[in-house]
Write a structure and sequence with these properties.
The structure holds two protein chains of two kinds.
Chain A lengths: L18 E3 L17 H22 L5 E2 L10 E10 L6 H6 L19 E6 L2 E6 L13 E8 L5 E7 L17 E5 L11 H12 L5 H8 L1 E7 L17 H24 L2 E4 L29 E3 L4 E5 L2 E6 L2 H9 L5 H11 L29 E7 L3 E6 L5 E8 L1 H4 L1 E6 L5 E5 L7
Parallel strand pairs in A: 2-3, 5-7, 8-9, 9-10, 10-11, 13-14, 14-16
Antiparallel strand pairs in A: 1-12, 3-4, 3-6, 4-5, 6-7, 8-17, 12-13, 15-16, 17-18
Chain B lengths: L5 E6 L4 E5 L9 H15 L9 E11 L9 E8 L2 H14 L1 H8 L9 H10 L1 H10 L5 E2 L5 H8 L7 E3 L5 E3 L9 E6 L4 E3 L12 E9 L14 E10 L7 E7 L9 E5 L2 H15 L3 E4 L2 H16 L17 E8 L3 E8 L5 E4 H8 L7 H8 L9 H9 L2 H25 L1 H12 L3 H6 L3 H14 L2 E2 L24 E3 L3 E6 L2 H8 L7 E2 L1 H7 L6 E3 L5 E3 L7 H22 L3 H26 L8 H25 L11 E5 L3 E5 L5 H18 L6 E14 L2 E7 L7 E5 L10 H16 L3 H16 L10 E4 L12 H12 L10 E6 L12 E2 L1 H7 L5 H17 L6 H6 L49 H30 L16 H19 L4
Parallel strand pairs in B: 1-8, 3-18, 10-14, 12-13, 14-17
Antiparallel strand pairs in B: 2-4, 2-5, 3-4, 6-9, 7-8, 10-11, 11-12, 15-16, 19-26, 20-25, 20-26, 21-23, 22-23, 24-25, 26-27, 27-28, 29-30, 30-31
The chains are: A alpha/beta, B alpha+beta.
């Protein structure tokens, strides 16, 4: 499925790779809104996760009995499995928007809604119990996590947590052995149409990928790029255009200009090599996760190429049997609002250990009300786990207890940083491709 | 022994009353009189078990409280009877026998009917004497014959509600054969009771056991639960010790199995009989002092008893403290000027106070809805999930898990009243009120204001050796008098500070200042006869004469002085108090004292009360009017440029007890100091204790008409305290939320932002949104309670007609009596009656029925809007209601009515709405070129809806307190209920439309 670059002088051949989309689980085209609610997705999650956790409990605490919340007995040590719910004092409440009397002070939206008085509650189908003790820190967990807890009920009716078990990294296929360097390039936040985006930067990126830039050395490097993934926020449409009913004729062009520009950029890439585009928050796509692919009609030019794949967010695929999984950033951004960590990579690592890429969905992260499944559960461990639209480029290699190797990548916003990220699928090494025009090239 | 309940059988206290001693009757005649009386009594009421009816007749020197009298006392007969019921029990029959006389007598003795038994009785035995009396025209009447026996007892023993009573050791003995379920039962003589004033350590609250309960019953679809058919399926109970914040017993009795609940004792039974009996046994065992709940008086308790009757459980209703005393359901009517007339049911639970939070709420707070949900949202800041009674049966018929679900809901309903009571400190406030006014706590909820004043009056009169005549009730009475008029309002928008001068407790202080009382009122006859020197009397503006306090100190002024003095002390103590519980008690007390002081005036004016005296009340109001006018005169005379002030002061408005003055200065600070000066100066011109106080400044101030104004409220010159409105913020329930939001926002813009153009623009945008059908439906919902069925209403009413229509559509979910019916006004055929235009909001959502925006514009928002804007905007009406913004209108096409039933649905182009034949496509060939742009629009719409959908439904999960169970709540009071419903429907539609753009 690779394209060949016909360069008469050098005759560099673009490397080829085998691509397989695993997005099926994220599709909702067959789903309908028939009055279903969010309880079912929690139910499905708890059910699946519990099976995993129960199997782990035997080795974790073999001597302890496993209970439900209802079956707790005062003072008796046991293991319970359930969904966490974080009681948050500062969590914005939609009721306030509608019902509170107008006050003189505008509603302040802090960046992070943590508060020292927040506490965790564990819930299963049978009931809820408040969690106490210092072992479990409310700042590390969020509503929607499914965990196993070892502890006992106190006289106050709380559950004193003594130990926590997370599902841990899911099993991983072994990394295929390949001696050739092949790169997958990630870019996010092109934000075409945004006032701060620089068209020159984007063009530099495209030219580099397609091999139209630099000397032979660079072109050799470019020829090793086998796949490009655009992880969301490719365009930025002027806000407020859709709220009102009227859309004057001049606004029409305003609306479609950024998309047309993007189409032109993408056409150049797609003409050269396979390209995946994921929708993001600012793209003309739906809001709730999983976001459905951007419609082909938006890209009349690029759609003509069979190298162009419009895919879902989250997006999962394999290149030469190396498994990739990633999002346009909403899941990690939401974790940052409702929990604490040193770095974005920590959040990512946590989601791996929870085996769930978006635990805050549906509570604070919009998601489709699935009835029989939870597509955000990670059944298999990816080799590359990426998140788009982050403030800076970071990466980390995580080693799992069963020898899993996962490369975590925070892809920065291209329009702000001018950085794209390339991953070598041979050894999961990654490096930044920096295109900055500030350096007076 | 601490905390045990005690039943004390007090012996030796007998009911009695007084009558005038007819002239010429001496001590020797008493025994003969006694015999005839007794004989008559026996004859008419044989076999009442008591050996003697009239126990004693005694001659006593007393004086009537009515009118100023120069002689100190007269002779009265005190008649002591055996049983309290004897008086009223025989009244009717004796009345029959002497009907002819009554007709003749009625003209002279207006107190006849009420105390007819006693009077008629009297004249029958002493007929000859009567004839003589009649000719002389003397007043014969009974005195204090309408005092309730418990009150009589309390007054004579100096006991008040919430009192500590000591029975010294040796003066009582344990009852051998107990009659009650109390832990301790004793006998004693009434004279041995020692009542302790609620001061010092005796001001502590007893550790009452408070039971909060709630029942669930499985109604049939479409009917409100009826005790004859529908079983009681769950009873949730929480028992708390007063003063502690966690219940020490939590249990629930369920019919059929129920899964366990953490921290709750779940008791499941196979038959309903067992559930009911278990509850009865529980009550007897826990022995609560106070039973609380939400609407227990009118629903839960009567339902339990009627249900037990229907099931034939004869020994169920023993829930009082007396053994074998059956509780029965009685219909009662409670009528009060202040609270209006209410029909209710009464269940006696001897020895246990019923405290229905619903009743307390309706009494003490003005809210737009009294559902438990909205009350707890208002006071506790949390929404409660509301399970419609049609779902309850489904949950009950499910498995033990669904029943557990119901049980959790039921427990919450029992817990919320408990929380409310704690939060609003009802126990403290009511006990303090009982202590101050001297009535039992149960009277406070079941009776009006007047019994409280009467109790104080009787207590005071007893000290002064006065007796109160028993006056005939005049029914509703037309004896109205000129109320408190207000000064003409100079309407307009005031951009300069307006100082407000308030009279502190105006009416009580007038009564004190002018010594207005029953016993100081001089009858016009006596004015002529007695020839009182003018310096000893006050002639009120209405022409009544009252003697000054040097001749006779009034009782009412004395009561008031005590009340206000006590309030002052309580407030001072409150400042010093540290302990939050003591603070709660003191704050409750000062509040009770204030309310009591203010209700004295009302007592004299209420024609349905025990002892109305319009001479007093009309004098009070006339003095009040005079004070307001005097204040205006003084202010406008003193604060002038001639008097050395910068500006001429101007009184712009005067209310019942306040006067608004524009001093002309432009700073709040200056207005405050002038206000203070004026208050001090004018107070000096009035008789003590009438006092004018300066409290606040309004700046800016919007005076719309009398009793309607809005302004920013300043008590210190740095920052305003709040926005204060009166008579504007239409919290009335027959207004939709849109009105309230619109008005609040406008006032906010006008007063706080001082941005009148902004306010105008906001109004225009809102109206445009309304006309363009962009308004959220929940803002347009109007709610009314359904109190009667269709035939009950004489005139057809919107909500009632709608309920009928809904019943035809689906009987299961239609509102039944007692429900609140929410509706919106829809567009109907021309000339349709207003009541035909109401529709269920959910039905409207589901069927795209167009809203009658003109109705909302004209009948809902235009009047309140114009009221606000007319003082500040020229041509307000044309500008706001008929401007350019009203030109574009968008109307929905209904999907199920009229001609649409015959229409064939065809897909149309998403871009231009042209019908497209090929259903596979989203756009017509014409719009194909705009595909990207149109798609963006569609998908943006979906994105917005998804965001809303997620927010709303997760919020409901949060309220419900469970992630793994579906939300069942159907609380229509919830601000997001319709939005949630609408989001669900819109989402489904939008998704379908988006799917037409095949990928």
């Amino acid at each position: 499925m690779a394209m060949e670059i016909d360069d008469s002088s050098n005759n560099l051949q673009r490397k080829q790779s085998l691509y397989k989309s695993l997005d099926e689980t994220f599709g909702v085209e067959r789903e309908r809104y028939t009055g279903q609610q969010y309880s079912q997705i929690y139910f499905a999650r708890l059910h699946l996760m519990r099976t995993i956790l129960y199997s782990l409990v035997d080795t974790w605490k073999p001597h302890l009995p496993v209970c439900t919340v209802l079956g707790l007995e005062l003072g008796k040590e046991c293991v319970i499995v359930g969904t966490l719910y974080k009681h948050m004092k500062l969590k914005p409440c939609v009721l306030d928007e509608y019902s509170k009397e107008r006050t003189g002070i505008p509603l302040v939206r802090p960046h992070n809604f943590m508060h020292p008085e927040d506490h965790l509650v564990l819930e299963d189908e049978s009931g809820r119990v408040k969690l106490g003790g210092t072992v479990i820190s409310p700042s590390l967990f969020v509503t929607g996590n499914v965990v196993a807890l070892h502890g006992k009920e106190t006289s106050a009716g709380d559950f004193l947590v003594q130990d926590i078990l997370e599902a841990g990294l899911p099993p991983q296929e072994e990394l295929p052995f390949d001696t050739k360097d092949k790169y997958v390039v990630f870019v996010s936040g092109l934000s075409v149409g945004c006032s701060s985006s620089n068209p020159l930067l984007s063009q530099l990126l495209v030219d580099h990928i397609t091999g139209h830039l630099g000397d032979e050395k660079e072109q050799i490097l470019a020829s090793q790029i086998v796949h490009v993934v655009i992880a969301g926020n490719s365009v930025e449409l002027p806000t407020g255009l859709f709220n009102g009913q009227y859309l004057a004729a001049k606004d029409h062009s305003k609306l479609s200009m950024p998309i047309k520009e993007l189409d032109i950029l993408l056409t150049q890439i797609a003409a050269a090599l396979p390209l995946d585009i994921m929708p993001g928050t600012s793209d003309p796509a739906n809001f709730a996760l999983p976001q459905q692919p951007l419609h082909r009609c938006l890209f009349p030019g690029t759609s003509a190429y069979n190298t162009f794949v419009s895919c879902t967010n989250p997006h999962s695929f394999e290149v030469d049997s190396v498994r990739f999984l990633g999002t346009s950033g909403q899941n990690i951004d939401d974790l940052d609002r409702y929990s604490n960590a040193e770095s974005r990579l920590d959040f990512m690592e946590r989601t791996l250990r929870w085996r769930h890429i978006a635990p805050t969905a549906p509570n604070t992260l919009g998601c489709y009300p699935f009835t029989d499944r939870d597509p955000f559960l990670m059944e298999k461990c990816p080799h590359v786990y990426f998140v788009g639209n982050q403030s800076k480029y970071e990466n980390r290699l995580v080693k799992g207890p069963e020898g899993q190797l996962v490369r975590l990548i925070c892809i920065p916003k291209f329009c702000e940083s001018g950085v794209a990220v390339a991953v070598n699928i041979r050894n999961l090494e990654c490096h930044a491709l920096s295109f900055s025009t500030d350096l007076d090239l | 022994m601490v905390g045990h309940s005690v039943c004390c059988n007090v012996h030796g206290f007998r009911p009695y009353f007084y009558i005038n001693c007819p002239p010429g009757m001496g001590p020797d005649d008493i025994s003969k009189f006694h015999q005839t009386l007794e004989a008559k009594m026996r004859e008419k009421s044989a076999n009442n078990g008591s050996p003697k009816c009239i126990l004693q007749i005694e001659m006593m020197q007393k004086r009537s409280i009515m009118y100023y009298q120069q002689q100190q006392s007269q002779m009265f007969l005190k008649i002591v009877v055996a049983l309290p019921t004897m008086v009223s029990g025989c009244r009717g029959r004796f009345f029959e026998a002497f009907k002819r006389e009554d007709v003749r007598l009625e003209g002279r003795f207006n107190n006849l009917q009420y105390s007819s038994f006693l009077f008629a009785f009297y004249c029958s035995s002493l007929l000859c004497l009567l004839a003589g009396i009649l000719e002389e025209g003397m007043q014969i009447g009974t005195y204090e014959s309408n005092v309730l026996f418990p009150l009589r007892f309390m007054i004579d023993c100096n006991i008040v509600g919430g009192n500590w009573i000591e029975i010294p050791s040796g003066n009582y003995r344990r009852t051998a054969k107990t009659m009650s379920y109390c832990q301790l039962e004793i006998d004693c003589l009434y004279s041995d009771l020692v009542s302790h004033e609620p001061e010092g350590e005796f001001s502590k609250m007893a550790p009452f056991r408070v039971l909060s309960f709630d029942i669930e019953c499985a109604g049939r679809k479409g009917f409100f639960p009826d005790a004859k058919h529908d079983p009681v399926i769950q009873v949730a109970n929480l028992v708390t010790l007063q003063g502690e914040n966690q219940p020490f017993v939590r249990n629930i009795m369920t019919l059929k199995s129920c899964s366990p609940i953490v921290g709750v004792d779940v008791m499941s039974f196979d038959t309903e009989r067992e559930v009911l009996l278990a509850w009865r046994d529980f009550i007897q065992e826990v022995d609560p002092d106070i039973i609380i709940g939400y609407n227990i008086c009118n629903f839960d308790l009567p339902y339990l008893i009627e249900r037990a009757q229907a099931l034939g459980i004869a020994d169920f209703p023993i829930i009082g403290r007396i053994r074998n005393s059956m509780s029965r359901v009685k219909d009662a009517t409670f009528s009060s000027r202040q609270y209006g007339t209410r029909e209710s049911k009464e269940v006696s639970t001897v020895g246990r106070v019923q405290f229905d939070l619903l009743q307390a709420m309706q009494r003490d707070y003005k809210l737009s809805s009294y559902s438990l949900n909205s009350v707890s949202a208002h006071f506790l800041g949390e929404q409660k999930e509301d399970v419609h009674h049609s779902i309850i049966s489904d949950l009950q018929n499910g498995n033990s898990e669904t029943r557990r679900r119901l049980a959790v809901y039921c427990l919450k309903d029992a817990y919320l009243p408990q929380r409310l009571m704690e939060k609003l400190m009802f126990i403290y406030n009511y006990v303090e009120m009982a202590r101050v006014t001297g009535v039992p706590i149960s009277f406070l909820l079941s009776r009006g204001q007047s019994i409280k004043v009467l109790s104080q009056l009787l207590r005071k009169a007893k000290q002064k050796n006065l007796v109160l005549p028993s006056v005939k009730r005049k029914g509703s009475g037309d004896g109205t008098f000129e109320g408190a008029t207000v000064l003409e309002a100079r309407t307009g928008f005031y951009a300069k500070p307006i100082a407000t001068l308030d009279f502190a407790s105006l009416y009580p202080s007038i009564m004190m200042a002018y010594n207005l009382c029953y016993c100081t009122l001089v009858t016009p006859e006596d004015v002529r006869k007695l020839n009182l020197p003018p310096e000893c009397v006050n002639k009120t503006p209405t022409g009544e004469t009252f003697v000054k306090s040097n001749l006779q100190k009034g009782i009412l002024p004395e009561i008031l002085e005590e009340l206000l003095g006590a309030r002052k002390r309580a407030k001072a103590d409150l400042k010093k108090a540290k302990d939050p519980l003591v603070k709660a008690v003191l704050d409750g007390r000062q509040l009770a004292l204030k309310i009591s002081a203010n209700s004295v005036y009302g007592f004299t004016g209420a024609t349905v009360a025990q002892l109305p005296c319009l001479e007093i009340s009309s004098s009070v109001t006339s003095y009040g009017r005079q004070m307001i006018e005097d204040t205006k005169k003084h202010v406008e005379k003193k604060f002038t440029t001639d008097g050395g002030y910068e500006h001429n002061a101007e009184v712009i408005y005067g209310d019942t007890d306040s006067v608004m003055v524009q001093f002309g200065v432009s700073s709040v600070d200056a207005a405050m100091s002038l206000g203070r000066e004026a208050a001090e100066y004018i107070s000096g011109t009035f008789i003590k204790p009438i006092k004018l106080e300066f409290e606040k400044v309004y700046y800016p101030y919007l005076l719309i008409s009398k009793k309607r104004y809005a302004g920013l409220y300043w008590t210190n010159p740095e920052k305003f305290d709040k926005m204060d409105t009166k008579g504007i913020e239409t919290v009335r329930r027959d207004n939709c939320l849109l009105v309230k939001n619109l008005i609040t926002e406008c006032l906010h813009k006008i007063l706080i932002d001082q941005d009148i153009p902004g306010a105008v623009q906001f109004v225009k945008n809102t109206i445009s949104d309304l006309l363009m059908n962009r308004m959220d439906l929940s803002l347009l919902v109007i709610t009314k309670g359904l109190t009667k069925t269709g035939e009950g209403y004489a005139v057809k009413q919107a909500h009632n007609e709608l309920a009928e229509r809904m019943r035809k559509r689906d009987a299961a979910t239609a509102p039944t009596i007692g429900d609140r019916v929410p509706y919106v006004i829809i567009k109907a055929a021309k000339g349709a009656k207003a009541y035909e235009k109401s529709e269920d909001p959910i039905y409207v959502l589901e069927n795209n029925i167009p809203i009658d925006v003109q109705y909302y514009l004209e009948n809902q928002i235009s009047k309140p809007l114009l009221r606000i804007f007319e003082p500040i905007l020229k041509n307000a009406s044309t500008e706001l209601l008929h401007g350019n913004h009203t030109r574009s209108v968008s109307i929905l096409t209904p999907s199920n009515t009229g001609i649409m039933k015959f229409a064939k649905k065809q897909l149309s182009c998403i871009g231009c709405r042209t019908v497209i034949s090929n259903g596979e496509q989203a756009l017509c060939p014409h719009c194909k070129g705009r595909e990207a742009e149109l798609y963006c629009k569609s998908v943006a719409n979906v994105a917005d809806l998804e965001m809303l959908f997620g927010k709303l439904w997760t919020q409901c999960q949060e309220c419900q307190g469970s992630l793994h169970q579906d939300v069942l709540c159907t609380s229509r009071d919830c601000p997001i209920f319709y939005r949630r419903k609408k989001a669900q429907k819109d989402m489904a539609e939008a998704k379908l439309q988006l799917d037409r753009w095949q990928f």
